[in-house]
Design a protein that fits this description.
Its main location: membrane. It is a multi-pass membrane protein. It catalyses: ATP + protein L-histidine = ADP + protein N-phospho-L-histidine. It is found in: Cell membrane. The chain contains 13 helices and 18 strands. With 577 residues, it is α+β, with helices and mostly antiparallel strands. Among the domains are: 116 residues, Beta-Lactamase (2-Layer Sandwich); 161 residues, Heat Shock Protein 90 (2-Layer Sandwich), CATH 3.30.565. A six-stranded antiparallel beta sheet has the order 7-6-11-10-9-8. A five-stranded antiparallel beta sheet has the order 2-1-5-4-3. A five-stranded mixed beta sheet has the order 13-15-16-18-17, covered by helices on one side. β4 and β5 form a beta hairpin. The radius of gyration is 38 Å and the shape is flat. About 2% of the residues have low confidence.
Length: 577
């Protein structure tokens, strides 16, 4: 028995040690990741700053009178000296002017070994982009000097907009690598093909993060982007979480996209310090736990001795205590039986309340399509419309009624619907089609202001149609007794959500607040004109979509209801904002 207890204690201590180690390791690694994110943000800002620092210079030079004069056939010597002065003052590798055919006619390095003058760069993507009216940007190894650089180019134009040539600059970004190396960091910058452009480790430069396809290699060869480089794959592999194996060592791995080229900045951080700190903390906890265990054992021995000395005197007290305990147990069992009966009664009351809510929801939700079906049949009977036109509409309404009965579980539990991309424009059109008989009967003028492109949100189309149908039906009822009967529907899209606004010229909300109107059986209409369930149902649906439902009185009269639904891919809950 004692051996079993000792083994159990040892096993418990081992489990505690493992638990403390992994918990502390997770905490310290999260700290290291937070530090790494800060460093990545710093280096990302530095790279962006370097790429944009001279982005305006080619635009300015393209409009310089000396550059335009040389591009139109003027002498090049004066421009060569001017460009050389600019390059020296700004720290650029080179500034050069090319004819429309790509031949360089003036450069800051004119008259020096490796000059760009006389070189044809028409094959370079930055030249082609500038000739097409864009600002050309490109990173590659220099075709003349063999040195890598970042190229920016703009077209030089005459007064009529004709292309006279292309002015380009070359920046040396290798200082970034030296900064990373001096800081002892592991950083690399890869282009959209996954080829490493800059790296704190020279052995990583011009390696590919993934195997390049034949088309990628053909394009790189055509652009002469990395001449003489085999672009072999880098020894690295992302693993689960924010981690990666590189050169056989596991590191924290974070990445950030660098505009405007879709480049990616990768940052690798060593978290061995987190492991060391976790072991130290685990050892400290085990030492404290051992000391506490020893103290508890000493006290336990003392308590056992005292208990043995008091055992005979306490025997009578124990019997009395047992008798009291038996009475308490019986009382507790009686209380538990009463509690069980009370719980059963509460469950029955809850089911009755749910049944009443379900019946009200069925009555309200099926009332709209049934009324629409009756209106279509009456219109067909009066107007003599052929069955071929009426049957599809009635079939659609029947499908909607079937969908409503399936959706009634929304009021019974909080399970989420199957959501997907939904076009709010299609939702509005479907809702308008459903309340069209009500609109025609009352004589309401409607307008729809919607963008040309779809407004995609994340949701369930049928449930969103329910919301719009309820709001539009309320708006029709609100303007029925007014001189001006108008409903304006506006559809739009923001940064985070798509939205619909419904404005009417009715009697407005009065003194009621939206949160009051969202309660079941609360309505601003006179008795007999509605049960007050529409907005309650709509509010629940919008909340289930993590959207926002708002309403207000308009200054000129009437009310405005606004529905906002998060866009596809957004995780934020707008209802909590």
């Amino acid at each position: 028995m004692r051996l079993t207890t000792t083994a159990l204690a040892a096993l418990t201590a081992l489990c505690v040690m493992i638990g403390v180690f992994w918990l502390s390791l997770s905490f310290f690694q999260s700290e290291e990741e937070a530090k790494a994110r800060g460093r990545l943000s710093l280096y990302h800002s530095t790279v962006r700053s370097e790429l944009e620092r001279f982005s305006h210079l080619t635009y300015v030079l393209a409009r310089d009178s000396h550059v335009i004069d040389t591009a139109t056939g003027g002498p090049t010597g004066r421009l060569d000296r001017r460009l050389a002065a600019f390059a020296a003052q700004s720290g650029l590798d080179a500034i050069y002017l090319m004819r429309p055919d790509g031949m360089t006619i003036a450069a800051s390095n004119a008259g020096r070994p490796g000059t760009f003058v006389g070189q044809d760069y028409s094959f370079r993507p930055y030249f082609q982009a500038a000739g097409a009216g864009l600002q050309g940007r490109f990173y590659g190894i220099g075709a003349t000097t063999g040195l890598p650089g970042y190229f920016i180019a703009d077209a030089v134009r005459d007064a009529n907009g004709g292309v006279l040539g292309v002015i380009a600059i070359k920046l040396d970004l290798t200082d970034l690598e030296e900064t990373w190396r001096r800081a002892g960091e592991q950083v690399l910058l890869a282009n959209r093909d996954g080829v490493v452009l800059l790296s704190s480790d020279p052995d990583w430069r011009y390696r590919s993060l993934a195997d390049l396809s034949a088309d990628q290699r053909a394009r790189i060869a055509q652009d002469r982007q990395f001449p003489g480089q085999d672009l072999a794959p880098l020894d690295w592999q992302p693993v689960e979480g924010a981690r990666a194996m590189i050169d056989g060592v596991e590191r924290i791995h974070l990445a950030a996209s660098v505009a405007p080229h879709d480049w990616v900045l990768h940052y690798f951080a060593d978290d061995s310090a987190a492991v060391t700190r976790s072991w130290l903390l685990t050892g400290l906890v085990m030492i404290l736990a051992g000391a506490g265990f020893l103290v508890s054992q000493v006290r336990r021995t003392q308590r056992i001795g005292a208990a043995l000395r008091r055992s005979e005197a306490e025997e009578a007290q124990l019997r009395e205590a047992n008798e009291r305990l038996a009475v308490e147990i019986e009382e507790r069992r009686t209380a538990e039986r009463r509690l069980k009966r009370t719980q059963d009664e509460l469950e029955r009351a809850s089911r009755l309340a749910a049944l009443g809510q379900l019946a009200a929801s069925v009555t309200h939700e099926l009332g709209q399509p049934i009324a629409a079906m009756r209106n279509h049949l009456t219109a067909a009977e009066i107007g003599g419309q052929p069955a071929a036109r009426i049957i599809p509409r009635i079939t659609g309404i029947v499908d909607r009624m079937e969908g409503i009965t399936r959706q009634l579980k929304f009021f019974a539990r909080n399970d989420r619907e199957e959501f997907g991309p939904v076009d709010l424009g299609a939702v509005v059109q479907a809702a308008l089609a459903l309340v069209e008989p009500n609109i025609d009967k009352v004589g309401v003028t409607t307008s729809l202001d919607a963008p040309g492109a779809p407004v995609l949100v994340r949701g369930n189309q049928l449930r969103l149609e329910q919301v719009l149908t309820n709001v539009l039906r309320n708006a029709v009822d609100a303007v029925e007794d007014c001189a001006e009967r108008r409903i304006d529907i506006t559809l739009g899209q923001g940064d985070r959500a798509g939205w619909v606004e419904v404005r009417d010229t009715g009697h407005g909300l009065g003194q009621a607040r939206l949160d009051e109107l969202q309660e079941p059986f609360v309505t601003t209409r006179e008795s007999g004109r509605g049960m007050g369930l529409g907005l309650a149902i709509s509010a629940n649906i919008v909340k289930a979509h993590q959207g926002r439902f708002s309403a207000d009185n308009l200054a000129q009269g009437g009310a405005m209801f606004r529905i906002e639904i998060p866009q596809e891919g957004m995780e934020e809950d707008l209802s909590a904002a």
